[in-house]
Amino acid sequence: MRATTVILGAGQAGLAMSRCLANRSIDHVVLERGEVANSWKTERWDSLRLLTPNWQSRLPGFGFEGEDPDGYRTMPETIQFLKRYAEVISAPVQTRTTVTSVRPVDGGYEVVTDGGTWRCRTVVIATGACNIPNVPKVAGAIPAHIDQLTPMQYKNPDQLEDGGVLVVGASATGTQIAHEIQRSGRQVTLAVGEHIRMPRDYRGRDIEWWMDAVGILDEFYRDVDNVVRVRNVPSLQLAGSDDRHDLDLNALTSTGVTLVGRLAGVNDRTAQFSGSLPNQAALSDLKMNRLLDRIDEWASENDLDGEVEAPRRFEPTRVEKNPSLATDLSNGAIRTVIWATGFRPDHSWLDVPVFDRKGRVKHDGGVVEAPGLYLMGMPFLRRRKSTLIDGAGDDAQDLSTHLAGYLNGGDTPAAA
Fold this sequence. Notes:
By secondary structure, the chain is α/β, with parallel strands linked by helices. The chain folds into 2 domains: 5-131 and 345-407, FAD/NAD(P)-binding domain; 134-339, no CATH class. The protein has 9 helices and 24 strands. Strand 1, helix 1 (12-23) and strand 2 form a beta-alpha-beta unit. Helix 1 packs across helix 9 (389-407). The longest helix has 25 residues, at 277-301.
């Protein structure tokens, strides 16, 4: 089987690239291990909703259709949105096709799947950044009587044993799961490391509206001081909900969640926590206020002060002066640990020498070092919004331009 381009993955990134290649009359196929939007369907918990408002789900040639532009899609609604997009653009998706190997051959690539082998000149890897949970080695020291779950395995509180829950990680995933479990009647302890505090609404508008209008989400990867650092910044402490509530540490402690510092280790069946919690909270407050200062400045420069609410600042994060530094894991108080400690991509099938010493694909804004190989859907790939549905389109436009130039024999070492 042959195609000029093989796209791996039929999520928002792969579908956006499919539309852009179709606009350029570049023949291609989209290979998907499950169904369209497979990760959204199979690897998310039941109550999860998008962190971005409905109007912000913009893909090439497609956008929000409905009566609630400021609401937040549920997972079934998100899946249906992406399926509808695939239908509208007539994406050539081949579902239930698992890729087992991609390797260079004769000026192109051979893509081996469980349904046959494809030959192509270019490959776009759009399999996402969240394929494998990052479970730290310390998990091996957790006592055997305590259940351990990742966010991919967690679905709802009903699956948990009665008793306390230790949630490790306080980015969007950790805070949302901690909030839901605490409300179910179980006592939650949240181990907090680096995190980004953010209000859901500011001056009467969604924080995502401000970040979009100010241009923060469009910041280009070449225009930041340390793109490696930025690509590892935690996700914002936000939740999509009907009541538009904030989900910062203050909101969690008000429901009874116990805060501790970063999980530093487990020794003799005792969890040990860092004493950095007060500093981490203060640093997060500082970063949030810097962002709000930037928004206020932009609003004034663009004569919006009379149209929106007045500027305000939020109560500092409340942290105990001496939070607990240890928890006994042998007394039965903690029955479950949930590792909300991030994810990493799975590129184990990629037989091309393009990995750095940490096993990450080396690329320049999605243009991989191997000619004709492209990457999409990774954090701050080209813009701050690259991992959002709203970011897939702009990245696909850029990279499809580079890909077309490559096919035409142009000297295009990196996408502009």
